[in-house]
Amino acid sequence: MEVCALEEQKLNEYGLTLDIIKTEQGKDDFCIKIRKALDGTELKAPVDLPFYSLEDDVLYFNYDHSKVNPFSSRVLTSRIWVPLSLRNKVMSYYHDDLLTGGHLGFIKTLEKIKCKFYWLTIIPDLKSFISSCMTCALITSK
Ligand SMILES: [Zn+2]
């Protein structure tokens, strides 16, 4: 199965609709700062602003492949910026869920999340999320 193939309906059942994400981004301190920096109401940006964009009022993080691989051309992949309040839900969707998760390891779960979503502390957050997963602990102890 294609890693990036995602069922929108299932995301909706999980409460990860664009509307909910937009609402939660609106309450998130970091997102509020980025929005203000993007629309010019705040001059100081907390991060590298060119990586961020707003589309239909949803905040996206644009991953620049040429920054990681100098031989690659400048390809930008847009990913939805996940506000703090929804991070556990996103990790749970891609790790715990029987259909979309399946308790895969760190790298595979990270790949799946990064097809669509991103946030700055995704790596440490996901590592600690998986290391505290009771189901994974049971599987590995057998
Ligand atoms: Zn697990």
Give a quick summary of the entry.
This is Integrase zinc-binding domain-containing protein. Pfam families: Integrase_H2C2 (PF17921). With 142 residues, this protein is of the alpha+beta class.
Number of helices: 8
Rg calc: 16 Å
Low-pLDDT sequence parts: none
What CATH architecture would you give? Orthogonal Bundle
Helix content: 40-55%
Separation, N- and C-terminal Cα atoms = 28 Å
SSE map:
Layout: H1 8-13, H2 18-27, H3 29-39, E1 52-55, E2 58-64, H4 65-68, E3 76-81, H5 87-95, H6 106-114, E4 117-118, H7 122-131, H8 134-141
Parallel strand pairs: 3-4
Antiparallel strand pairs: 1-2, 2-3
Helix pairs in contact: 5-6
Q: Could you explain the architecture of this structure?
A:
It is a single chain. By secondary structure, the chain is α+β, with helices and mostly antiparallel strands. It has one domain: Orthogonal Bundle (Endonuclease III, domain 1), CATH 1.10.340. Strands 1-2-3-4 form a 4-stranded mixed beta sheet. Helix 5 packs across helix 6. The radius of gyration is 16 Å and the shape is globular. The two termini are 28 Å apart. The relative contact order is 0.13. The mean pLDDT is 86. Bound molecules: zinc ion. The site of zinc ion has 5 residues, from helix 8. InterPro entries: Integrase_H2C2. This is Integrase zinc-binding domain-containing protein.
Q: Which short descriptors sum up this protein?
A:
globular, alpha+beta, Integrase_H2C2, binds zinc ion, Integrase zinc-binding domain-containing protein, Endonuclease III, domain 1, 8 helices, 142 residues
